[in-house]
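User: Fold this one for me? It's Phosphoribosyl-ATP pyrophosphohydrolase.
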Amino acid sequence: MPTYNKLVRDLIPQIIEMSGKECTSRALAPKEYLAEIKLKMLEEALEFKEAEKPKDAIEELADILELVHASLAVYEISYEELEQIRLSKKEERGGFSEGIYLLEVEGD
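Assistant: Here's what I get for Phosphoribosyl-ATP pyrophosphohydrolase.
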């Protein structure tokens, strides 16, 4: 039996069992859960980076957004609170909509 040892979506064990296979899973403790969310976020970000088709890239973005929502629950803040932080940072430092690519800074 292949070993995965990674965070998966909540319904994956049932989907595996419905396909006639067996699997072993467990619920993670809060500290483990947050660590695994962070690892999964990196995995999904790499998959987004490697996606060649727009549909695949959007699927990876959806996975990243799902992980953002899971993280918010762990940190006990709402999506609206996160959005306020995002807007505040955007007002203070700008967004990423203009595609500015910094080449160098003299004196660094």
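One thing worth pointing out: The chain has a mean pLDDT of 96.
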